[in-house]
Amino acid sequence: MTSDARVLALALLTMLLTAPACSPVPPADTKKVPPKSSAAKESTEADEDKALLAVSAAIRKNHLVDQKPDQCLAYRVDSKSMKDAYVVEVRENHRHKECGGDPQTSPRLFTVRVAKATGDMTTDANSPAGEFRPLPK
Question: Disulfide check for 68: which of 20, 72, 90, 134 has CB 3.0–4.6 Å away?
Fold first, then answer.
């Protein structure tokens, strides 16, 4: 192979490797969502914590569970499935001896929805049909 052919082959290879077609291009309709700032994330987490504390207090105030120690309940907060409310799933926690039950299970007891704007709560506790009813504050 002559030196001219080598230079031409090298130039062609370089063009192919650096051509825009070789680098991924996002589709035109893709919108970049800026990441939440750490302050916004902390604020959201603080609001979730407040909602969780309010749910725990409402459970005790409204006697939604038998006289179980706090460590016998587990909570899972979902702030994304509903735009205007936090959804708090309340479950049994059997990981402590005083709670009894199989430590490998965590049966769902009920769900509480907390309105993000007002803090008003609804629950499906003690509802065989799973219908939500208001909880007093």
Answer: 72
Sign for the pseudo-dihedral over CA of 23, 26, 28, 33:
negative
What the block records as the tokens of 115 is 């309105």
Token code pair at residue 33: 């969502």
* β-bridge partners, 123: 112, 133
- Token pair of 132, please? 């939500």
d(CA 45, CA 130): 28
Looking at residue 22, the DSSP 8-state letter turns out to be: G
Cα gap 130→124, rounded to integer Å: 5
For 13-52, the pLDDT digits (tens) are 455 455 554 444 445 444 455 565 666 566 678 889 999 9
Which residue, among 44, 51, 36, has the nearest Cα to 115 in the 3D structure?
51
Kindly report the pTM of this predicted structure. 0.67
State the Cα–Cα distance between residues 33 and 42, nearest whole angstrom: 18
The three-class DSSP label of residue 132 is: coil
Residue ranges covered by each domain of the chain: 39-135
